[in-house]
């Protein structure tokens, strides 16, 4: 007997009463779980339910206009702060993680274009901290980019961590935002001619295309690292078994989390602090990511150059840290045509031949045509052939241009933190030996009361 025949017979043998009981039980179960049930009765909503997460759509947003220094103008509407700004316009192809990207200090001074069409649909979370005192959902305590450009801003958001809309967040931080523009056209221009400067104006200036009130501002002429670095030393997880100094060139909170959650005691130092004076207090040194032109951070390069010759303990750099480490080793830097800002960039490990997908955000790269005798290439970008990392041939120094900590993006290269921490612990054991805790024993006979 076929399955179809068996199902037909079982259906015909079922009594009407058993069917109605089954329906009643199923309906009651669904109602308990808060799920929708099917009904033959028409159901209409006379007034929509309150939606505290909904943007006030009754207020007509002001016009906004974006002008590239190359002459192209794009019109849209504003959903952020109503102030004009200027900066370097760049694009990211990341699909998720706009709160993390916008708070990444590496975007300082830049107008950020999202190629993902729909932005803002899951709102913005609150400033919650984890057990280490680090922000859970942001990479710093403020929006770092100058403005954002999106194709379609979601006026209604929904997420269990959200406390406000993207537009409200931008307005509160004084960051302009424009929606309704052809971001694909902008990316084509930047891809073909390279990154350029741009202006964003709001209101009547946008309608009249009046861009003369503000000049074109090139953030790469400023020392952006000094703007985002800590001014005083800050400690996290002070009771960790190994001590790491983090040279703060604009460090992301998830980088710090990647170190402290592996048991390290971390001390964040200002970008221009001469850590060589106290380097013997640390088991390892980490050089962080950061914004802008690395040539503006030559003080850090000088300190690293001295450390390369004298420190001998593990050092690891990420993004800006790779550029500064390379400059300290004797390499030059160059500005990329439009940079690498994405969550899906393939990087080839030249030591083992493995290709890993990485998260990236940088506009400069090391010139690695000729290498100093003691150094070699570590990673290379599969897409454009640019440098993605360097490693010392004999000493425990290495750095990568991409972001192993992601946030957002793939975690394929997070193992680099494990290698860094394991190397630090291994060398500390070799220096100091293994320390054991021996509990104090008390002779019971001596403690008896006569």
Question: Would you give an account of this structure?
Answer:
With 450 residues, this protein is α/β, with parallel strands linked by helices. The chain has two domains: 63-221, Carbamoyl-phosphate synthase small subunit, N-terminal domain (Glucose Oxidase, domain 1); 225-432, Class I glutamine amidotransferase (GATase) domain (Rossmann fold, 3-Layer(aba) Sandwich). It is built from eleven helices and 21 strands. The chain has helices at residues 3-13, 16-32, 98-102, 166-172, 183-193, 204-207, 224-228, 253-260, 298-310, 320-329, 415-432, and strands at residues 63-68, 73-78, 85-92, 110-114, 118-119, 124-125, 147-149, 152-153, 162-164, 177-179, 196-202, 234-236, 242-247, 264-269, 284-287, 315-318, 332-349, 355-367, 375-381, 387-392, 397-400. The strands form four sheets. A ten-stranded mixed beta sheet has the order 12-14-13-15-16-21-20-19-17-18, sandwiched between helices. Strands 1-2-10-7-4-3-11 form a seven-stranded mixed beta barrel. Helix 9 (298-310) crosses helix 10. The longest helix is centred in the C-terminal third of the chain and has 18 residues, at 415-432. The chain is globular and about 70 Å long. The termini are far apart. The model is unreliable at 1-19, 21-56 and 446-450 (pLDDT under 50). Pfam families: CPSase_sm_chain, GATase. Residues 62-201 form the Carbamoyl-phosphate synthase small subunit N-terminal domain. Belongs to the CarA family.
